[in-house]
Amino acid sequence: DLPQAVADAFRYNQLVLCSSTYNADVFPCMRAFIEHLAERGYRNRTVALVENGTWAPVTARQMAALLEPLKGWRQVGESVTVRSAAHAPQLAAIEGLAAALIADISGEKQ
Alpha carbon of 22 to those of 27, 37, 49: distances in Å? Predict the structure, then answer.
């Protein structure tokens, strides 16, 4: 439910955006979600990005571009790329991203 997801995003200081690549673009539902956040003045939040795609995952960069006009947002951790299914290296990267989010909450440096 898009309106509920948008409302929930405003409740938290951090957000993890995960999107599969769809026709070399952000999946339409995720694009709509980010556009709704922008229309409602989403700002001053920390965002982590995860992309998925089989041959050419490109959505992390594209999601960051969609977020660019938002005031005060910043990316925490490195974007994680999953190629189709998560295997040990991607799972480790996701765990590292979770650790970066936790460190960000507590004000620690990673």
Answer: 5, 20, 16
Q: Please give the radius of gyration of the chain, using alpha carbons only, rounded to the nearest integer.
A: 14
pTM of this structure: 0.89
Count CA within 13 A, CB hemisphere, residue 105: 10
The rounded average pLDDT for each run of 10 residues, N- to C-terminus, in the chain (110 residues) is 95 95 93 96 95 89 94 93 88 93 78
Strand partners, 40: none
> Cα–Cα–Cα angle for 1, 83, 8, nearest 5°?
20
Q: Measured between alpha carbons, how far is residue 39 from residues 36, 42, 82 in Å?
A: 5, 8, 29
